[in-house]
Specification:
Layout lengths: L4 E7 L5 H14 L4 E5 L9 H25 L3 E5 L2 H11 L4 H11 L7 E6 L2 H7 L8 H20 L4 E5 L4 H15 L7 E7 L6 H9 L6 E7 L6 H8 L1 H5 L3 E5 L6 H9 L6 E4 L5 E2 L3 H11 L5 E10 L2 E5 L5 H6 L9 E3 H7 L10 H10 L5 E9 L13 H11 L1
Helix pairs in contact: 1-7, 2-4, 3-4, 3-6
Length: about 425
């Protein structure tokens, strides 16, 4: 499956965004890349702040749906000037509108479509005034607005460390462009990260489509799904082969069925023999990945090359309560009780080769056992975001009556 690359150009007025975008576009075309460029920085000074807010949200949604996503899905490089960070810096930091509200509306408008790389070109108000046709002069109001927006970019860059690169815009055009090309050539390697997603299933025809579709809808598309059917008798096989003919034929989905039911650990282990990606994720057939699951893990992997395993928060509902689960890593706490759901745990294939697969002697808690083994010598990177919807089903293995027996076996290993 093709995976494009999305680059945004941000910064205050006259920081050099257009110049660098056009230079990079020319460079990439010469290198043989398919490139689409777009500018979302329409001047809306005559509108009220509220009118500007909703006008821009509608425009973002339109451009993402009609231009950005189709281009990325066809493998093109998208260069965009003034994307979401510009919007947030301008309205929230510059004009004082509620930051949380704007970021939430922003994410909805762009359907959580985040860039792979963002350049922020930084200049001070004196340089900006010189480059601006009319200049700021001694206008304190304009200078205050400018500095608030500038601070906003710095703050957003801290929140998105790794993706957002702040570049000194006071350098020569040639020096800045050299940095832009270097960052592009380094960051385009993100697309080499391939996930193999393992999905065991047994008689889950009633819900497996939701799980599969949540993976197919990911904003990052370099993955394969390996479905290990542990002897289902409810029509799962027919459903998969009918609904997902295209994905099966092009290799995005691999499906196989065992002759008899041997348990979740066995089903996962069989799937693990077929993985082709360097990074392995797990999706139970009744859970659902949030749209940016693979994107967030990809970005964390790329920014932390020493890391061999990662996990995130997950969300579920119980007795009408909405709950957010998991926290920063602590191995001693993990030994006491598992706080990492298997559906949020991603690891490099080298850990499978070094520490082995799932223990088939455990009829429950086999995920906890594997996570304990993998993280004992390899502290995982914690992504402090909710990225999985955990669904509590009556047929979950953890409810099968083997809990106490498996707990004793795990305690004995420690």
């Amino acid at each position: 499956m093709k995976n494009g690359f999305f680059i945004t150009f941000e910064g205050v007025v006259e920081a050099g965004k257009s110049t660098q975008l056009n230079l990079l576009k020319k460079h990439l075309l010469q290198k043989g890349f398919d490139v689409v460029d777009i500018n979302l920085g329409e001047n809306l000074d005559k509108l009220s702040d509220r009118s500007e807010l909703f006008y821009k949200l509608a425009d973002f949604a339109k451009q993402v749906d009609n231009i950005i996503v189709p281009a990325l899905n066809s493998g093109k490089v998208v260069l965009c000037e003034n994307y979401t960070e510009s919007f947030v810096a301008h309205l929230a930091y510059g004009k004082g509108m509620n930051l949380t509200d704007i970021q939430l509306l922003n994410d909805i408008a762009v359907d959580d479509r985040k860039p792979d790389l963002t350049f922020v070109f930084d200049i001070n108000e004196k340089i900006c005034s010189k480059r601006t046709k009319n200049g700021f002069g001694d206008d304190k109001k304009n200078n205050e607005f400018f500095n608030n927006v500038r601070f906003g970019y710095f703050d957003l860059a801290k929140q998105n460390f790794g993706r957002m690169k702040i570049i000194d815009g006071e350098q020569s055009v040639e020096n800045i462009f050299k940095l832009v090309v270097e960052e592009f050539e380094k960051n385009i390697k993100q697309n080499d990260i391939k996930f193999s997603v393992v999905m065991p299933t047994f008689n889950r025809a009633y819900c497996i489509e939701n799980a599969i579709n949540s993976l197919l809808a990911q904003t990052y598309q370099n993955f394969e799904l390996i479905i290990s059917d542990d002897g289902s008798s409810d029509g799962t096989e027919d459903l998969i082969k009918t609904r997902y003919k295209t994905e099966l034929s092009n290799g995005i989905i691999k499906y196989f069925k065992s002759d008899k039911n041997e348990g979740q650990s066995s089903a996962r282990n069989k799937a693990l023999k077929l993985v082709s990606g360097d990074w392995i994720a797990y999706l139970d057939s009744d859970n659902m990945m949030w749209k940016n699951f693979l994107y967030e893990f990809k970005m964390a992997i790329f920014a932390n090359p020493q890391v061999k395993c990662l996990y995130s928060k997950f969300h579920f509902e119980r007795n009408g309560q909405s709950l957010e689960c998991s926290h920063a890593f602590d191995y001693k706490q993990l030994q006491e009780a598992n706080f990492i759901d298997m559906g949020t745990f991603v690891h490099h294939i080298s850990l499978l080769e070094k520490y082995g697969n799932f223990d088939t002697s455990l009829k429950s808690l086999e995920d906890w056992d594997l996570i304990l083994r993998y993280t004992k010598e390899n502290e995982p990177y914690f992504i402090d975001k909710m990225l999985l919807e955990y669904v509590i089903s009556s047929d979950r293995v953890s409810s099968n009556g083997y809990y106490n027996e498996s707990l004793e076996k795990i305690r004995a290993k420690q």
